[in-house]
TrEMBL record, chain B:
Histidine kinase/HSP90-like ATPase domain location: 34-133
InterPro entries associated with the record: HATPase_C_sf, HATPase_dom
Name this protein carries in UniProt: Anti-sigma regulatory factor
SUPFAM superfamilies, per the entry: ATPase domain of HSP90 chaperone/DNA topoisomerase II/histidine kinase
């Protein structure tokens, strides 16, 4: 039942594509796995792609927000990409603001944004 | 006409089961992707409240037809401690669980109708409806 989310490394960036609905355990496991991978690879950036995710509740939002803050403590920047219109609408209506979070329309733009950020 | 199905909430996995049930019913009723996301999210929040505050309870999903309009009704019922101050929990930003759960005002905004009944020591019954327009 516990499926782990694959984390890929491309040069100095980690790439994560979340492909299925996250349950609580998978989300927490992902948080730990990503931080361990950051530590292990010394990656400087992370792109988390949410294109396949069709809803985000407050718990998943909190896990995502936390993982972004934790990565930043470890010196890595995180970009969230591919948030669907329905997800953006429900998050705001629910009252969740992912403030100070770097976002981009898709994976390609996300990687570009991260590269610019890391070179700046 | 009403047609119902339900999920008992006892573990974190039941939260997933409840929102999947709700999403399937919403899809079958013809709700669009944005409303499906609203309904799924509302169920997830209500199921998590039951899991966090009452320990166990039930999420019931009903199909409604009223004046020729179809809708979906979510009933979140538990026999938990009840809510001491409803006014307070309906304020944005109020949480007693350390930031978990966006709370009931969020669920109210996602749905069309929202009713809450709670009795201290007996439990809470929340009914939230979304109409298909």
């Amino acid at each position: 039942m516990n499926v782990r989310i694959p984390i890929l490394k491309l040069r100095d960036t980690l790439i994560v594509s979340i492909q299925w609905e996250l349950d609580d355990q998978t989300a927490i496991q992902f948080q730990e796995d990503l931080l361990a991978k950051l530590h292990e690879t010394s990656a400087r950036g992370v792109v988390i792609d949410l294109t396949s995710i069709d809803f985000i509740d407050s718990f998943i939002a909190k896990v995502l927000g936390d993982v972004i803050s934790m990565s930043s403590l470890m010196g890595a920047r995180v970009v969230i990409t591919g948030i669907q219109p329905a997800v953006a609408i429900t998050l705001i209506e629910l009252g969740i603001r992912l403030e100070d979070v770097m976002t981009a329309l898709d994976l390609e733009n996300g990687l570009d944004k991260l590269q610019m950020e890391l070179e700046a | 006409m009403s047609n119902q199905s339900s999920v008992e909430i006892q573990t974190e996995w039941d939260i997933v089961a409840a929102r999947q049930l709700g999403r399937n019913v919403a899809k079958e009723l013809g709700f669009g992707t944005v409303d499906q996301a609203r309904i799924t999210t509302a169920i997830s929040e209500l199921a998590r409240n039951i899991y966090l505050y009452a320990g166990q309870g039930k999420i019931e999903i009903q199909r409604l037809t009223e004046n020729g309009i179809n809708g979906i009704l979510i009933i979140a019922a538990d026999s938990g401690p009840g809510i001491p101050d409803i006014r307070k929990v309906m304020e944005d930003g109020f949480s007693t669980s350390g930031g978990l759960g966006a709370g009931l005002p969020g669920v109210k905004r996602l749905m069309d109708d929202f009713k809450i009944e709670t009795t201290l020591g007996e439990g809470t019954d929340i009914r939230a409806t979304k109409w298909l327009r």
